[in-house]
TrEMBL record:
One of its GO terms (biological process) is regulation of lamellipodium assembly. SUPFAM superfamilies: Actin depolymerizing proteins. GO terms for cellular component: actin filament; cell cortex; myofibril. It comes from the Eukaryota. Keywords: Actin-binding, Cytoplasm, Cytoskeleton, Repeat. InterPro entries: ADF-H, ADF-H/Gelsolin-like_dom_sf, Twinfilin. It is found in: Cytoplasm, Cell cortex; Cytoplasm, Cytoskeleton. The lineage of its organism: Eukaryota, Metazoa, Ecdysozoa, Nematoda, Chromadorea. The keyword Protein biosynthesis does not apply. This is Twinfilin. Coiled coil: none annotated. Actin-binding protein involved in motile and morphological processes. Inhibits actin polymerization, likely by sequestering G-actin. The keyword Membrane does not apply.
């Protein structure tokens, strides 16, 4: 996955990694909570890895809680790494897990991992399936790029079929738009209001209405955009140059310090599918899409500049050189001969 979360192992997790490599831990389960990687469960184990595997799996797993699994395969430092994200888990939980996977493996140490798998069902942890993977049906050695491509292909293969609103597509994720928001978007299309603002409800995985303005002046637009929360906004702007109305879609995203990684990922991933739904369901044609943060200006001059006619570029012309037959003839004189001494 191209998007990187910036979530890294803290001192507590790095200390746990050291315990793993010192042979004190057979298995560890790591989850992402509040943008922090934390150990959710660990097991010291015995000298029999098969018995240990049957003891901890699948009892320690939660279908609604994506996680990373580290399991020491032998008494040496040979580890199995599993990223587990059940199809039942919320999209907002699975996305940070997928985006942090490469960073997690790198910080634990690629050289210690002999098998790297991605599971989407608890039954994938059955011991007989694991033994088949390990003994002869195991993965071939892969580079990190090959691992990422293999991981992406498995994600697509195990993606659930969509119902009314697909929760995840190749273009990103799609959340339904609530009824109040759809009603106000309809009013916006009809021209009864000129400003609509929406947000993503990360808990219920839906796009909800934040507010509307019947007649928002362009001088008030800057103050209508929150400085600490991301938003989707539609604004109808009257362009004086051609006396026409232009519809702006404003994707406002404050600096990273103000917004959680999860929110940034959801707003970014939902944007394209959301605009498609608005176009198809509400018949709203967006004239210009812009992305702004709290430092960008939103005034009349800025909006008008997007539709200002481009000045024609004056290209410098070069005169062609005269062909050889047209050039004046040159007189070549014989050089005086010199006598060697």
């Amino acid at each position: 996955m191209a998007y990187q979360t910036g979530i890294r192992a803290d001192s507590t997790l790095l200390k746990f990694f050291e315990q793993c490599k010192n042979g004190k831990v057979r298995m560890g389960k790591i989850v992402i909570k509040k943008e922090v990687l934390s150990v959710n469960y660990q097991y010291e184990g015995t000298n029999d890895w098969r018995a240990d595997w049957s003891t901890v799996f699948p009892n320690c797993l939660d279908s609604f809680e994506p996680c990373y699994i580290l399991f020491r395969f032998t008494n040496k430092n040979e580890w199995i790494f599993v990223s587990f994200a059940d199809d039942l888990a919320p999209v907002r939980e699975k996305m940070p897990l997928a985006a942090t996977r490469a960073t997690f493996m790198s910080e634990f140490g690629q050289s210690f991992i002999i098998h790297s798998w991605h599971f989407t069902n608890k039954h994938d942890f059955d011991l007989d399936k694991i033994e088949k993977r390990v003994a002869g049906i195991s993965e071939k050695p892969m580079t990190e790029v090959e691992r990422q491509l293999d991981y992406a292909s498995r994600e697509r293969a195990h993606a659930p079929l969509p119902n009314v609103f697909p929760m995840q597509t190749l273009r990103g994720c799609t959340f339904p738009i609530d009824r109040d928001a759809l009603n106000e978007l309809e009013n916006f299309k009809n021209g009864s209001i000129n400003f609509v603002q929406l947000s993503i409800d990360t808990l219920n995985e839906a796009i909800k209405l934040e507010g509307v303005k019947e007649k928002l002046e362009v001088s008030q637009l800057q103050s209508a955009i929150p400085k600490k929360e991301p938003r989707y906004s539609f604004y109808r702007y009257h362009n004086q140059s051609d006396d026409s109305d232009k519809i702006f879609f404003i994707y406002s995203l404050p600096p990273s310090a103000e917004v959680s990684v999860k929110e940034r990922m959801l707003y970014s991933s939902c944007k394209l599918s959301f605009l498609d739904n608005v176009k198809n369901d509400c018949n709203i044609e967006v004239s210009k899409k812009i992305e702004v943060d709290s430092k960008d200006k939103l005034d009349d001059a800025t909006l008008a500049s997007y539709f200002a006619p481009e000045e024609p570029i004056k290209r410098q012309t070069f005169s062609k050189p005269a062909p050889p037959s047209k050039t004046p003839r040159r007189l070549i004189r014989d050089l005086p001969q010199t006598t060697a001494i």
